Amino acid sequence: MTPRRLIVSAAAVVAVGLLACVPLVFGGYGLSLAINLMSYTVLATAWALFSGPTRYVSLATVAFFGIGAYTVAVFGEVFAWPVVLVIALAIGVVLALIVGLSTLRLSGVYFVIFTFGLAELVRQLVTWYEVNVTRTLGRYVFIDVTTAQIYWQLLALAVLVFIAGILIRRSRLGLALRVIGDDETVARHVGIDTTRAKVTLFALSAAFITVTGAVMAPRWTYIDPAIAFNATVSFQVLIMALLGGAHRLYGPVLGVVPLALLFEVLTANFPNHFSILVGAAFMLVVYAVPRGVAGLIEEGRGSLRGPRRGLST
Amino acid sequence: MSSALLAVSGLSRRFGGLLAVDDVGLTVEAGQIVGLLGPNGSGKTTVLNLISGALAPDSGSVMLDGTPITGLAPHRIARRGVARTFQIVRVLRSMTCHENVLAGTAFGALGSWGPAARRSADDLLARLGLAGRAATPASALTYIDQKRLELARALALAPRLLLLDEWLAGLNPTELTTGIELVRSLRDEGLSILMVEHVMDAIRSLCDRCTVMNVGRVIADGPPDVVLADPEVVRAYLGSDDA
C-alpha cells in the first residue's frame, strides 16, 4: 500500500508541476481553454464533495459562483486582491450556512428544486438591488491580473479541493456522509448529527465554488446578473460530475475534460442550439453511464481482480 | 424516580385521526430483557420509534437512567446509549460489512476512530458470525446475514439499551437457537433489551417480563407465562374479530 501511495503522490506532484507550466507554453486560445477546464475541474469536484456521497443533487452552483463574481465586481477596486477573495469566501460560506440550515431537511427532488430556485432568487435580488439602489444593471470588472495568474489561482484551488477531498474521505465526516447517502434514518440512529454533517460539507463545497467565481470574474470585464447567475453553469457542472462519477474524488475530472471540450465546440458552432444540445448530452450521460466513467473503471478493474476490496486507507 | 434503566410513561402519538400509541407506560430494569408483544398494528414499532427518537411523542415521557430523553433528536438518543435494529432490515448497501459496523463505532457513545475502532468492528463482525465478510458489500449478504450485520452495527454503538424490532423473525430453527443464545449472552453482559417479537419460543426463553399492547394501549404486563395466559391477551391475538 505504501509504495503505491508514494507513486500516486509523486505522480500528483509531477502532474501539478506540468500543469503549472501550461501558461508558459500556451497563450491566447490555448490558455483560455486551459482556464475553462481548470475552472470546471474545481467546480465539479467541489460540487461532488457534497453531492457525491450524500446524493443531494444541488443546482445552486451558479448562485455561489455568481456571488463570487459579484464580490469582485463590487470590492475588486476597493481592496487588495487577497482581501477580495477572503470576502467572497466569507459571503459564500455564510450564505451556504443559511441555505443549508433552512433546506437540508428537505430531501430528494424538493432539495433539487429549492437549490434551483435559490440561484434564481439570488439573481433576482441582485437585479433588484442594482436597478433600484445603484441604478445600473451592469458592472465593469477592471482588475490588474493576467490570464496566467488566473490560471495559477485556479490550479491552486484545484489542488486545495483535492486535498480537502482526500482529508474528508479519510475522516469520520467522510464516513458520516456516505452513511447519510445510503440511509439517512440509519445515519441518525447510529449517532450522526446529519444536519451538521450536511451543512458543513455544503458550506465547504460552496466556499470553493464562490472563490472560483471570484477568480474567474476578471475574465469577463463586464458582468450583469444574467451573465453571473446563468443557470446553465449549474447544469454543466452537474453533468460533468455525473459523467465522470460523483462518488469518487477523481471522478468529476474525467467528465470535465470531454464535456468542457464538447461545450467549447458546441458554443462555437451551434450557439443558438446550445441548450438543446446540452440537454441531450445530459440525458445521454444519465442513461448510458449512470455510475460515470469512474464507475466503468471500477467495473473493469473488478472483473480483472475479483471482488471489491475493503477500506483502502 | 424509579431505578429502571428505561421508564416510559403516558406516551401517546397520533397520526391524523389514528391514535397509534395511547397512554403507554413500560419499564426495562437494568440487565433485563423485556418483550413488547401484541397483534400487528397494535403500535409496538411506533413505541420503539418514540423511544429511539425516530418520532416525537405528542405527550408522555421517556426516561433513560433517570434522565429525560423525550423528543430528543435520534442521534442524541443514540449517543446516550440507545441502539436499535429495524423491523425491515436496513443495512448500508453501498458499503462493506466492515464499514457498516464502523459507522456504529465512530459515532456512538464511544465515538472511537482509527485502528482501535477498526479492530473492534472486526471483533463484532466475528461475534455475529460474519468473520471473513469484512470486505463484502452489505448488499451481497443474505437476509439473515444482513440482520446479523444490523445487530453488529447496533452493538458497535456500545449501547446500554438495545431495541430489537423482530430481530428473530424469519430465522430457521437452527439460526433461531443461535440467535436466542446470542441475545441471552448480550443480557448476561449487562445489556438491557426491549424486544418486539412474535416468536413465542424466543419470548418464553428470553424475556424476564412482557408488556402486551393492543390497538395502541397496554393490556397486560408481567412475567411471560402469566401474561401469555391472560384472557385479554388471548382475546387480542385470537379474538372473534380476527377469526
Query: What overall geometry of chain B do the principal axes of the alpha carbons give?
Result: globular
What is the strand arrangement across the widest sheet of chain B? 6-7-8-3-9-10
Number of helices of chain A: 15
Order of helices and strands of chain A: HHHHHHEHHHHEHHHHH
| Average pLDDT score of chain B | 91
Succession of helices and strands of chain B: EEEHEEHEHHHEHEHEEHH
The total strand number of chain B stands at: 10
What is the architecture of the largest domain in chain B at the second tier of CATH?
3-Layer(aba) Sandwich
Per DSSP, the total helix count of chain B is 9
Overall mean pLDDT of chain A stands at 89
Query: Helicity of chain B, in percent?
Result: 25-40%
Largest interface: A-B, 23 and 36 residues
Protein architecture, described:
The complex is a heterodimer of chains A (313) and B (243). Chain A is mostly helical and 313 residues long. Chain A has a single domain, classed as ABC transporter involved in vitamin B12 uptake, BtuC (Orthogonal Bundle), CATH 1.10.3470. In chain A, 78% of the residues lie in helices and 1% in strands. Chain A has 15 helices and two strands. A two-stranded antiparallel sheet of chain A has the order 1-2. The relative contact order of chain A is 0.16. Chain B is of the alpha/beta class. Chain B folds into two domains: 165 residues, P-loop containing nucleotide triphosphate hydrolases (Rossmann fold), CATH 3.40.50; 68 residues. Helices cover 37% and strands 24% of the residues of chain B. Chain B has nine helices and ten strands. In chain B, the strands form two sheets. Chain B has a six-stranded mixed beta sheet with strand order 6-7-8-3-9-10, with helices on both faces. The radius of gyration of chain B is 18 Å and the shape is globular. Chains A and B meet through helix 8 and helix 9 of A and helix 2 and helix 3 of B.
